Every structure is written in structure tokens, then in C-alpha cells.
Amino acid sequence: MELLQGTLDALVLRALSWQPMHGYAIARFIRSGSNDAFRIQDGALYTSLHRMEAKGWVESEWGISDRGKRAKFYTVTAAGRRALRAESRAWERYVEAVAGVMRATPEEA
Amino acid sequence: MTRGWRRLLRLPFGRAERDVDDEVRFHIAERVADLEALGESPEAARNRALEEFGDVDAVRAELVEIDRGVESKRRRAAWWEGIAQDARQVTRGLLRTPGFTVMVIVTLALGIGANAVVFSLIDRLFFQPPAGVPHPENVRRIVLRYTQSLTRESTTRGVYNYPEVRSLAEAAPPGVTIAAYTPVNELPLGRSPAGPKVVAARVVGDYFGALGVRPEAGRFFTAEEQMPSGLTPVAVISHHLWERSFGSRHDVLGEDIEVDGHRYTIVGVAPERFAGASLDATDVWLPFNTLGGWSTRKADWYEAPYTLYLRTIARVTDDAVASALITRATNALRGSEVMHDSTAVALLASLDGAIDSEFHAGEFAISQRLVGVAIMIFLIACANVANLLLVRALARRRETAVRIALGVSRRRLAAQFMSEAMLLAILGGAAALLVTWWGGALLRRSILPGVQWGSDGITMRVVAFALLATLAAGLAAGIIPAIQGGNLRLTTALRGGAREGRAVRGRTRTTLLIVQAALSVVLLAGAALFVRSLRAVQTIDLGYDDDRLIFASATPAMEDSTARRRIAEALPSIADRLTHLPDIERATITPIAPMYGISFQKMFIPGIDSLASIGPFGMPVVSYIAPDYFATVGMSVRRGRGFIESDREGTELVAIVNEKMARSYWPKGDAIGGCIMVEERSAPCRRIVGISSDAHINGIIEEPAPAYYLPLAQASEEWKRTGTIVARARAGRVASASATMTRELQSAIGSFATIEVRPMDAALSRQLHQWKLGASLFSVAGLLALLVAAVGIYSTVSYMVGQRTHEIGVRLALGARSGNITRIVIGHGLGIVLAGVAIGVVASLVMGKLVASLLYGVTPHDPVLLGAVAGALLLVAVAACLVPAWRAIRVDPIETLRTE
């Protein structure tokens, strides 16, 4: 399955909404959460992160990973959380709409 | 570009690349480690990790670019934040001391404004072509340079008489249009001299064509309308006059306009904005032949040399044609009857204002000197503001020291001092635009009232100039406080005393103050010189009782010979009647009143073959007068007799010469009994019967001109047909006598004549204009400088008192009297000012040479004058010290000693 850019942003923000993470941890989170269903290039993930940083949705800081390596950690900002909420609502409405149509039976005219 | 170079250029952004590399490397390494843990071989793991990542180089490049954007945005934000913070802090500081702030803004506004005003003036006068001329670069003025035969000086003239213009036009190569125009004249519109006025100029040739101007309506003059022989009274009016007086009506063509009592048919309207080739805005253009046509003298203007006021322009679009024109014009002028001068060379000059200066020479020269004045005011203002900022910085040293101790960088502090100066300069610059707006209008009106200034003076060029001046002022005023503020010695400043490091700063402040004082002396000396000149000019003895004379002239309201004759016949009886009226002592008749014009006639003296060119006009001046003329104007007969009633037609022809002429031609003192012939060598001899006192003929400043007087009763008919009444009012009754004369003339000949009554003072005031102008402008500048200098002295001495409060307290405690303290304080101020005065006096002596040519009756190195100026400045310095001194003697010794 291919992913749209906006959706990738939402997934990344969702990942970060739990705790600050470095890029590789986010990739792992998405991979395991989707059971490897999405074919996301890891590079695209970083493009998304840096773009969101430019937009002010995430902030970055160098830290030490759990394996003791120097890694860049990302944190969601307040603006990022707002964007995530908007994206989630839009997603839920989309899912409900699709589901509604899927469940519906034709009415008598 | 090599990679190395690229890296160097991107130096500030190098971190973005490194960070991206580290981040990507970390990701790959982690993925490889995970895959290896799942059992893949290192090589396979690495390949898979890279494959999952995608195009590493492309991603890397994209990330670097995004990060750079982020970085530079942050930098900008930080920079603006810094500025905003500085501005807030500076604004708070300035608001805390409103007195200081206002003083600085006003000082800068005056300094910057004075420069912008003078710039706008100079720009218009010297660097802008006349308004409304489409391609001014295609129009040139023809200027003549020659060597004066007597003085051997190289001289330039830009004016020609009609014969010269005609020979220039005949000599012009094909493709060149030659035209000429007279200086403008303010003439009454309509019949009443008290009514509205128009500014008129007469033109020769295709004047409008030469300037490349097309009519808005109608046409310009035809060649026939300009023939010397004919007189077709036609006129072209300006767009402005068309709007003002004719409501922009399109049927105005063919209507009559009455100028100076004569009717002209309007044939054309000039385009909008165009107001003539001279600086003065013209309303009406008339063919030059209307000058000669109306003249009562023989219509000889087309061959007479006396029309030496025509400015000549040429339309030249080609460089080769231009050089041909120069050659041919040079030959034409060398061969012309008037010139006869092989040193003459014709030159082509630009149409821009400068050459017009001959007519307003004094005003132009003053404008140029104003540049120097403006720069001096600017320097004084900057020095003063720098000084005030320094004093302010010193007063805040402890605060500054604390901030340094708290870790604020010195660079940041310096930047803050600079931004304070800049903010003040910008506020000052904004206020300066106001100064420019109305100060400029005032200056332009007072210097050259009739000039077409085009816009209201604040052009984009002026604004740009003001902006530059503002930046310069900010830099000049801020640089010293910025450097010194940043170099504060922390320990000493914090320890509390303001004693160490004071020497250096004190020296800077003292120097600034000395500069201010010196420049003020120079400006004050300039003011004094111009005021003294005005005094000297006003007290020149013209040889007349000029404060009591009134001139009245009448011209026919409609051109017909009977009107002129009737006026001529009526004037003597009117003059006679006037003498019996209250307020008028005497009244007489002469063809041309002094200061209103001069007349020459060819003159011969037996025994002298050719009369050497003498006097300011090259030859003696002739006046036809009645017997009571000398008594009326206040001249006297020094030897021999004056004219008497029996000197009339039929009796012996007589003449009177003035002392200057008697000395010049009869050095042995035998003028009386001598003989002069006028018009022709074979004319009958006129015997000299008397020698009169000398008098100024044409100007206030004039070397005595040789002149001779002939009885009006023995003049030819032409002379008798013209006339001016010269009346002598009782002392102090000039105004009421003028009114009486106007009434009398109006009732006698007002039905067919236009009457003009003017006191002699009115004629003189025009000539006095440049002297009054110089005196008033330089006085304003001098007072301004003095005021600013006083503020500077006050602030410095005040600071000194503040710093030495402790010492003063001790002195008072030890029994010093208030007089001693006052002496210390005033001595401190005076010491600085004295040095400035000394330098200023020397500078005045040097710079006096620059204005020497504009002065009269006073020299720039007049010791009394310079002494008075120095004294005035010292007096102001003492006055400026008085307040601080008063504060010093009120120091409470107990209070001061307790605090430390």
C-alpha cells in the first residue's frame, strides 16, 4: 500500500504523541503498528520529519539512544498536536463514511 | 565551484549537513544492527537497510535544504527579536528622559532639515532644467567668453542685444534653431497698476520651437509677427494663466489680453507645466517687436545696442552641428558691430539653471554659501547630539557595568548605543521633513520669490537626501558613545567612583564642545558680516534725498499718438499743481527717473579725438532736467550755476557736468566754459555752465558715474514726449504724498493713461533684497548655532557639576564661599569655550574670503566684529553655566559627605 504525504505526517505525529523518539524508532513503530502493510521508504519518513520541523509541528534535539548512541530525538509541539487532532478527525470521518457506505443496503425508491 | 569553496561559502550552515549525515548514518546503523540480530549477514543487512531507505543522496540533499531554511528563519527571527528588544529598551530609556529626547530630536531635525532645505534649493537652481521642456539636453544656451580690454580679465556673458542675436541666427548652420528671450517683467494685467500682475517675457525667433514645446491650443508666433518693421500685437499665454484668468475656455483664442495698458490678441496657449526658459515662471509671451513698436523713441531697437539683455538659446540635436555652430557663432560675434573683439569665443552651455545667475547674482551667490552654512549646522547638531549621548552613557555607567557583569556582551551593548542614536536620528529625520516642508517654502519664497519651483520642493531626490543625512547623523552621533560604552572598565565602574577613565571621555566631550563653539563662532561671524554689510549698504549716500522722493509715470492706456501727446502736455501742469498740495515740497519733470533707467547719447568734446571708455557704463550718462531738478532730488551745484528758466529753446545751449565727469575730461579744472556736442560731432556746442554733485544713477552700489545734464527745454521733441514726475515729499510724509499724487494724476489723466506712483525706496528695496537676504539667513543660522552650542555647554557643565558634587560638598564643608564654587563651575565651561572661540576666530579669518565678494563696507578680518562675536559666545557660555553653578552652590555638604 502506498501512503499519501499527509497521512505519513499523521502517522509520525501519532508515533511521537506517546514520547519523544528518534527517526529509527518512529520507523519501527509504524512498521510494527501496520504489520509492515505500508511500503514506506525510510527516507520519506525523514523528509516528513524535517518538513514538520520547518512548519513548527515538531522540534528536534540530539540525545543518546537506548543503545547508547548519539541520535536526534523529535518532540511534538502544541501546533503539531493540533495538526494531529485535525488529521485524526478527518481520518475518522473518512473511515465512517466509507464504512457507512459499505454497511448500507439500497432503500426503496 | 570546488567543493572546498562551497563548504567555505556555506560555513554558517555546515552544521545542517553534518547533522543530516549523522542522523542518516545512525538510522542505517540501527537498521543493520536489527537485521543482523534477526540473523542476516552483515552485507545483506546493509544492502537491505539502504534499499529500505531509498535514494540516500537525494534524501540527504533534500533534508539539508529543509534544515537550512529552518536555520535561516531562526536566525532572522533572532535578529528581529534582538532589534525589537533593543528598540523596546531604547524607547523605554528615551521615554524616561523626555527632555533629553526632545532636545536631541529638535537638534537633529534642525541639522538635517537645514541641509535638506538647502539641497532642495541648490538642486532646483543649478541642476534642474526649466520645467516642461521635453528634451532639455537638445537645447543649449549660447555663452560668450572674451577678455576685457581694460582689465585683461576673462569675462563670460550670456546676454546679447538684438543685432547680435540676429547675426547669430543668420550664422547658424542648417538644422539649428536660434531663439532669444528677455528677462521676465512683472506687468499689470489690465489697465490699473494696482490690479493683478502677470509675469511677461518677450521673445525673438522660434522660441517655443527651439525649446521643443508644442502649443496646448492655438499656435505660437509667426515670422511675420516678429518682423522689426511691423507690429502685430499678439500674445501666447501660459497654461497657468489660461486656467487662472480664462477658466481654461477653449474660445480664448482671438480674445484680447491687456498687459501694461496695451491690448494683445491671444493666439496660443503654452502646454501645462511649461513656464518659460528662465527660472522665473512666465505667464505671457509677446513678440520682441512689441518692445520697439510701443516705444516713443525712434523704433531703433533692432539696430541699437541697448537691448543687451537677450538670452540666446539654440536647438542642437547633433554634436557635429554643435561644433559647427560654435565656430560660426564665434565668427559672427567677433564681427558684430558691438563686440569687435577678436578674443570672443562662443560656448554652448546646458539649459540647467546655473547660467541664469547673472540676473540674481547676489541671491545665487548667497545660495551657494548656504551649503557651507548648512553643513556647519549639521556638524554642530551631530557634535551636540554625540555629546548629549556621551553624557547620558556616562550617567548610566553603573547600570551598564551591571549588565556586563550579568553577561550581556559588549558588542550587544555597543549595538544598543548605536541603535539609540539611530532611533533618535530617524525621529529627527522625520521631524526634519516637516522643517524641510515649511522651512523650504519660506526659504524659496524669500530668496527668489518669482521662481517656478515646480513641485512644493519635497521631491524624491530631497527625501533621498534627507534619508542619507539621517543615516549620516545617526552614525556620526552614535559611533563615539558606542565605542566608549562598549569599552567600559568593569571594575572601576562597579566600584562606584566615576574617576578613572574620565580623562579619555572628558577629552572627547571637550573636543566635541570645542568643535561646536568654533563652528558657532564662524556662523556668528558670518551673520555679523552680513548684518554689517546691510547696514553699510543702507547708509550709502546715493547723492539724493532718497527717503523723500516719489516717482510718478504715466503710459497711454491705449496706443495712439494723441494719448501720448496729451500725457506729455499734461504732466508739467500736474507737476506744478502738486507743489501746492500739502506734504509735497517740490515736483519736477525728467524723462527717466534715477534707478529706473539710464540714457546715453553719443557725445563729443572738442580737442579730444576719442573719449576713453570711463565709468561703470563705459560712457557718460545723460539726463534732461528742468531748472528745479537738483533742488527736488537733493543734489547741489558745486561750481558755476544751475539751469534757469531762460535756458530754453532759442537761447544759448548749455550743459552741466557732474564732478566725476569734470575731473575725468577736464583734469585741469577748466570744465566750466568747456563745450560738449551731442548726437553728432558737427552738432552745436553746448557750453558747460556748472558742475553738479555726483549721484548714483542706476544702482545703490556703483562707482560714481560721469554724467551730464541738459535742460529739458532745449531737448528734442522725442525727449519732451516722455516724462516722469519726480516729487519731493515733506520729511516723513512719503506715504500720504504718494496717495495725493495718485489721486491727482488719476483725476487729471486717468481716463486715458495708466498711472504708476512709486516711492524711490520701492526701487531701492529690490536692490537691497540680496543684502537683507544675506543678513537674515546668516543671522538665523548664527542664532541657531548659538542656541545649540548653549545646550551643549549646559549639558556638559551640568554633568561636571553632578560628577564633582562630592568635591564641591567637601569644599563647602571646608568653608569655600559660593562665589568660589561659581567660579570653578563657570571656569570649567569657559575654559572649553575659550579654546573653541580661538579656533573659530582663526577659521572665520580663513573662511571670510569665501564670502568677501558678497560683503560691502566691512572686511572679514574686522577685529571689532570678531571680538564682538567672541564676546557674544563667551557671554552665552557663562549664561549656560549659570544654572549648573546655581545647583552647585546649593549642594548640601552634610548630605554629600554622608552618602559616600
Largest sheet of chain B: 13 strands, mixed
Q: Quaternary state, please?
A: heterodimer
* Cα radius of gyration of chain B in angstroms: 39 Å
Radius of gyration of chain A, taken over Cα atoms and rounded to an integer in Å = 17 Å
Structural class of chain A: alpha+beta
Q: What fraction strand of chain B? A: 5-15%
Percent helix of chain B, as a range, is 40-55%
**Helicity range of chain A:** 55-70%
What share of the residues of chain A does DSSP label as strand, in percent?
5-15%
Report the strand count of chain B: 24
Model description:
- The complex is a heterodimer of chains A (109) and B (900).
- The mean pLDDT of chain A is 85.
- Chain A has 109 residues and is α+β, with helices and mostly antiparallel strands.
- The relative contact order of chain A is 0.17.
- The termini of chain A are far apart.
- Chain A has 4 helices and 3 strands.
- Chain A is elongated.
- In chain A, strands 1-3-2 form a 3-stranded antiparallel beta sheet.
- The longest helix of chain A has 26 residues, at 78-103.
- Chain A has helices at 5-18, 23-33, 42-55, 78-103; strands at 21-22, 58-64, 70-76.
- Chain B has 900 residues and is of the alpha+beta class.
- In chain B, strands 1, 2, 3, 4, 5, 6, 7, 8, 9, 10, 11, 12 and 13 form a 13-stranded mixed beta sheet that branches. In chain B, strands 16, 17, 18, 19, 20, 21 and 22 form a 7-stranded mixed beta sheet that branches. A 4-stranded antiparallel beta sheet of chain B has the order 15-23-14-24.
- In chain B, helix 5 (98-127) runs antiparallel to helix 11 (361-395) and helix 11 (361-395) packs antiparallel against helix 16.
- Chain B is extended.
- Chain B starts with a helix and ends with a helix.
- Residues 1-13 and 497-504 of chain B have low confidence and may be disordered.
- The A-B interface holds A 22-24, 27-28, 41-44, 46-47, 50-51, 53-54, 62, 65, 67, 69-72 and B 19, 22-24, 26-27, 29-31, 33-34, 52-56, 58-59, 62-63, 66-67, 69-70, 73.
